[in-house]
Design a protein that fits this description.
Number of domains: 1
Number of strands: 5
Strand order of the largest sheet: 1-5-4
Order of helices and strands: HEEEEEHHH
CATH class: Alpha Beta
CATH topology: Zincin-like
Amino acid sequence: MGKKAVETKQQKRVMGLVRRWKPILGLASWSIQVTFSEEESDCSNCRKTDGHTEWHTIMQNATDWAYMNTALVVFLPAIRDMSMEKLEEVVIHELCHTVVAEMRPDVDPQDYDTKHEERVVTMLAHSFLRTATYYEAKGQKLGGKKK
């Protein structure tokens, strides 16, 4: 498969998940723009242990909550070999940043420590995934529609 076909496949995976989760998370009326980058993330927020990177930026979220706009940047190298389950978790996590964005303090972004927000959106994403799994096991999709 050529590089362009792989990119298109990755873009379709992400966009399908955004379309699925946007209404579930109460973001149906939001403008969410998704762009894809061939660049490696700058990894400005990576932790290193014994010289190995533990995690890196997979996506970036910039939200203007007052106008209900979000821009997501997806770093294609980071998702190419990612399972659909892990990609779904990452997409939900990033969309949860949009949900909680207006709770951020009104300070320069450089002065904002995101650890608390990261913990909150991680727990929300896990909760939403568990809820989806529960309903799907009962033959329903979130939103009450039968499969």
